[in-house]
Specification:
By secondary structure, the chain is mostly helical. It is 58% helix and 5% strand. It contains 18 helices and 6 strands. It has helices at 10-17, 19-29, 50-62, 84-104, 106-127, 139-144, 152-171, 176-202, 212-227, 239-250, 264-273, 277-299, 303-312, 331-334, 355-366, 374-391, 403-411, 425-434, and strands spanning 36-39, 43-46, 135-137, 274-276, 314-317, 321-324. The strands form 3 sheets. It has a two-stranded antiparallel ribbon. Strands 3-4 form a two-stranded antiparallel sheet. Helix 4 packs across helix 12. It is globular.
Amino acid sequence: MCINSADLTEISIYHRILRFKNYQIAMINKEVLPVRFQLPFLGDTVFLPQGLKYNLELMLFWGPWSPFPDSWHLRSDYKSKLKREVLAAQMSNRMLVLAIANLLLMPLIFMWQILYSFFSYAEVIKRDPSLLGTRRWSQYGRIYLRHFNELDHELDSRLNTAYTLSNQYLKLFNSNIISVIAKHIQFIAGAMLAVLLCLTVIDEDVLTVEHVLTAMTSLGLIVTACRVFIPDENQVWCPEGILQAIKSHIHYADDSWTGRAHTDKVRSEFSQLFQYKATFYLEELLSPIFTPFIIYYRLRPKCQDIVDFFRNFTVEVNGVGDVCSFAQLDVRRHGNTSWMSEPESPAECQAENGKTEMSLMHFTVTNPNWEPPLPSQQYLERIRQRLRDEVGAPGAAGVPNGLASLMQLSNEGFPSLLSYQLPSLPHLASSVLNQKL
């Protein structure tokens, strides 16, 4: 592959680096990949451990049977509608082989996963048991919240900024019953530990008694672990404000969350994006067991949709190769009418949750010298004009950059495009207003 320096743009570089990542983001956005499951007692659950993600990438992007024979173009057969059924059948058979291979290797992979988890996390958990009560962005969350054409360090910076706020939000939902139980257990374990410590100060021979050191270590671990379930007594109950601040960094949230941040449903949905590390470790441990069944029962029936997705949403860019059309940031093709776009394509071609529009704004701000396509330029100009009108609106006095009136846009059917940027709104507003197309 060769590209002329005159044709080398910021987005062509991003396309080369993030070719397969953009496909993953689009397939999650359009729910082509089956990562959601309805489970008894648990309800709607997201399951995307590293093992399953590895198998998906192996089958779809870089494996010997993938639709991509190399790193820059899609097989020509996948671009023809006439061969869709044949390709779907071939992919289904190959997924069957992959599922059987995972099933046969399951004992070996499971034992390796146990050993890897033990040697990786045992010492860390022993030193700080509260680690299991901390949280991290899930594998699914990192894909769901990622913009098209967003590099790893850009995503990390954005999510790391939201980390503390996300912790604060979910800590608001500590159960009173669990908190009371944890306080009682912590009190009893702490009292026993204090007695043993006093005895060792009085007579150091107490340490030679059988199992005393083990008991002291265990009691210390219990006391530390209980702290995770005890809320901060100084925390303020303000879920709506905290979640609104989180949205300013993660940029994507369901419209149904607005005004319902205090509900368990919103907390549960947000927890799918920002999960306990203990949950993450458990999912990774169980991944070898569930992966072959997910591939066989959930992924194989989606082969037709996957083949259609590659055919419908792949475009060839001169000097770059085949890329996901969503990554072109073309609001005319993949925009959404509820986000002030004017798409000319049917609903099934439109990105969900304003992914195209938000990605366009993010890429424009991070790459101010990039010249977007004419429809995208016109869309950005409409946004700039709306910002100019709203920043000087009456009633915004004393609020930085017309914050109050910008928040009102979401109530007028403009789905939180600007209110998602609350803490960073001055930067976004000034960037969008000052850029020259």
